[in-house]
Amino acid sequence: MAGEDDIPLSHTDDKGHSRMVDVGDKEVTDRRATVEGYIRMKSTTLKRIVDGDVEKGDVLAVARLSAVQAAKETSRLIPLCHPLPLDNVHVEIEDGEEDGISTIKMTVSARVQARTGVEMEAFMAVSIGLLTIYDMCKAVDRGMEIGPIRLVEKSGGRSGDWVR
Predict the structure, then answer these.
(1) Which terminus of the chain faces fewer neighbouring Cβ atoms within 10 Å, N or C?
(2) Where are the domains of the chain?
(3) pLDDT tier for residue 144 given thresholds of 50, 70 and 90
Protein backbone atom coordinates (compact mmCIF):
# COMPACT_ATOMS: atom_id res chain seq x y z
CA MET A 1 0.00 0.00 0.00
CA ALA A 2 1.21 3.49 -0.78
CA GLY A 3 3.20 5.08 2.00
CA GLU A 4 3.28 2.06 4.31
CA ASP A 5 6.73 1.02 3.08
CA ASP A 6 8.17 4.26 4.46
CA ILE A 7 7.05 3.60 8.05
CA PRO A 8 9.99 2.51 10.22
CA LEU A 9 9.69 -0.76 12.12
CA SER A 10 8.89 -0.08 15.76
CA HIS A 11 10.70 -3.12 17.16
CA THR A 12 14.16 -2.19 15.89
CA ASP A 13 16.54 0.54 16.99
CA ASP A 14 18.50 2.83 14.65
CA LYS A 15 21.13 0.09 14.20
CA GLY A 16 18.55 -2.57 13.30
CA HIS A 17 18.73 -4.40 16.64
CA SER A 18 15.57 -5.88 18.12
CA ARG A 19 14.06 -3.97 21.02
CA MET A 20 10.92 -3.79 23.07
CA VAL A 21 9.01 -0.58 22.31
CA ASP A 22 8.85 1.87 25.22
CA VAL A 23 5.14 2.58 25.69
CA GLY A 24 5.52 4.34 29.05
CA ASP A 25 4.63 7.77 27.69
CA LYS A 26 1.69 6.60 25.59
CA GLU A 27 -1.86 7.27 26.71
CA VAL A 28 -3.97 4.42 28.11
CA THR A 29 -6.90 3.95 25.74
CA ASP A 30 -9.58 1.38 24.99
CA ARG A 31 -8.05 -0.95 22.43
CA ARG A 32 -9.80 -3.71 20.53
CA ALA A 33 -8.85 -6.18 17.83
CA THR A 34 -10.73 -8.86 15.93
CA VAL A 35 -8.98 -11.67 14.07
CA GLU A 36 -10.52 -14.51 12.07
CA GLY A 37 -9.14 -17.80 10.85
CA TYR A 38 -10.28 -20.99 9.18
CA ILE A 39 -9.63 -24.70 9.30
CA ARG A 40 -10.75 -26.87 6.38
CA MET A 41 -11.46 -30.57 6.75
CA LYS A 42 -13.34 -33.56 5.43
CA SER A 43 -17.11 -33.37 5.84
CA THR A 44 -16.98 -36.53 7.96
CA THR A 45 -14.56 -34.82 10.34
CA LEU A 46 -16.82 -31.79 10.72
CA LYS A 47 -19.80 -34.06 11.33
CA ARG A 48 -17.93 -35.86 14.11
CA ILE A 49 -16.98 -32.53 15.71
CA VAL A 50 -20.55 -31.20 15.57
CA ASP A 51 -22.02 -34.52 16.78
CA GLY A 52 -19.55 -34.69 19.69
CA ASP A 53 -18.11 -37.94 18.34
CA VAL A 54 -14.38 -37.26 18.84
CA GLU A 55 -12.53 -39.46 21.34
CA LYS A 56 -10.61 -36.57 22.91
CA GLY A 57 -13.83 -34.79 23.92
CA ASP A 58 -15.79 -31.66 23.03
CA VAL A 59 -13.56 -30.19 20.34
CA LEU A 60 -15.20 -26.78 20.14
CA ALA A 61 -15.34 -26.26 23.92
CA VAL A 62 -11.65 -27.11 24.26
CA ALA A 63 -10.79 -24.88 21.26
CA ARG A 64 -12.61 -21.93 22.88
CA LEU A 65 -10.74 -22.42 26.15
CA SER A 66 -7.38 -22.82 24.44
CA ALA A 67 -8.01 -19.63 22.44
CA VAL A 68 -8.64 -17.64 25.63
CA GLN A 69 -5.61 -19.17 27.33
CA ALA A 70 -3.43 -18.41 24.30
CA ALA A 71 -4.44 -14.74 24.35
CA LYS A 72 -3.42 -14.57 28.01
CA GLU A 73 -0.01 -16.15 27.29
CA THR A 74 0.94 -14.07 24.24
CA SER A 75 3.73 -12.06 25.86
CA ARG A 76 5.35 -15.27 27.11
CA LEU A 77 5.58 -16.65 23.57
CA ILE A 78 6.25 -13.56 21.43
CA PRO A 79 9.36 -12.01 22.97
CA LEU A 80 8.73 -8.32 22.21
CA CYS A 81 5.02 -8.23 23.15
CA HIS A 82 4.07 -6.39 26.31
CA PRO A 83 2.05 -8.34 28.89
CA LEU A 84 -1.48 -6.97 28.79
CA PRO A 85 -4.24 -7.07 31.43
CA LEU A 86 -6.94 -8.32 29.07
CA ASP A 87 -10.44 -7.07 29.81
CA ASN A 88 -12.15 -9.55 27.50
CA VAL A 89 -11.48 -12.29 24.98
CA HIS A 90 -14.58 -13.34 23.04
CA VAL A 91 -14.46 -16.45 20.84
CA GLU A 92 -17.02 -17.24 18.13
CA ILE A 93 -17.02 -20.48 16.18
CA GLU A 94 -19.07 -21.18 13.05
CA ASP A 95 -19.10 -24.27 10.88
CA GLY A 96 -20.07 -24.42 7.25
CA GLU A 97 -19.29 -25.40 3.69
CA GLU A 98 -17.30 -23.36 1.22
CA ASP A 99 -16.94 -24.62 -2.36
CA GLY A 100 -17.78 -28.14 -1.17
CA ILE A 101 -15.14 -28.06 1.59
CA SER A 102 -16.17 -28.25 5.25
CA THR A 103 -14.81 -25.39 7.34
CA ILE A 104 -14.76 -24.06 10.84
CA LYS A 105 -14.29 -20.30 11.18
CA MET A 106 -12.99 -18.97 14.48
CA THR A 107 -13.28 -15.26 15.23
CA VAL A 108 -11.68 -13.77 18.33
CA SER A 109 -12.22 -10.26 19.63
CA ALA A 110 -9.91 -9.02 22.37
CA ARG A 111 -10.22 -5.85 24.44
CA VAL A 112 -7.90 -4.05 26.82
CA GLN A 113 -7.38 -0.66 28.47
CA ALA A 114 -3.67 -0.19 27.80
CA ARG A 115 -0.84 1.75 26.16
CA THR A 116 -0.38 -0.76 23.34
CA GLY A 117 -2.61 -2.73 21.00
CA VAL A 118 -4.16 -6.13 21.44
CA GLU A 119 -3.85 -7.51 17.89
CA MET A 120 -1.22 -10.10 18.74
CA GLU A 121 -3.37 -11.53 21.52
CA ALA A 122 -6.25 -11.98 19.07
CA PHE A 123 -3.90 -13.54 16.48
CA MET A 124 -2.47 -15.91 19.08
CA ALA A 125 -5.95 -16.90 20.25
CA VAL A 126 -7.17 -17.81 16.75
CA SER A 127 -3.95 -19.63 15.86
CA ILE A 128 -3.92 -21.79 18.98
CA GLY A 129 -7.68 -22.35 18.89
CA LEU A 130 -7.42 -23.71 15.34
CA LEU A 131 -4.33 -25.77 16.20
CA THR A 132 -6.32 -27.30 19.07
CA ILE A 133 -9.00 -28.41 16.61
CA TYR A 134 -6.29 -29.96 14.45
CA ASP A 135 -4.71 -31.70 17.43
CA MET A 136 -7.98 -33.16 18.64
CA CYS A 137 -8.99 -34.43 15.17
CA LYS A 138 -5.69 -35.39 13.52
CA ALA A 139 -6.26 -39.09 14.18
CA VAL A 140 -9.20 -39.03 11.74
CA ASP A 141 -8.08 -36.29 9.31
CA ARG A 142 -4.40 -35.43 8.90
CA GLY A 143 -5.21 -33.45 5.74
CA MET A 144 -6.87 -30.56 7.56
CA GLU A 145 -5.66 -27.11 6.46
CA ILE A 146 -5.41 -24.00 8.60
CA GLY A 147 -5.63 -20.53 7.09
CA PRO A 148 -5.95 -17.83 6.24
CA ILE A 149 -5.67 -16.08 9.58
CA ARG A 150 -6.11 -12.33 9.31
CA LEU A 151 -6.87 -9.12 11.15
CA VAL A 152 -10.47 -8.04 10.61
CA GLU A 153 -10.38 -4.78 12.53
CA LYS A 154 -8.62 -2.87 15.27
CA SER A 155 -9.38 0.28 17.19
CA GLY A 156 -7.72 2.54 19.71
CA GLY A 157 -4.31 4.04 20.05
CA ARG A 158 -2.30 6.57 18.11
CA SER A 159 -2.65 4.84 14.74
CA GLY A 160 -6.45 4.94 15.00
CA ASP A 161 -8.98 2.51 13.65
CA TRP A 162 -8.44 0.00 10.86
CA VAL A 163 -11.04 -2.21 9.16
CA ARG A 164 -10.34 -4.85 6.49
Answers:
(1) N
(2) 28-158
(3) very high
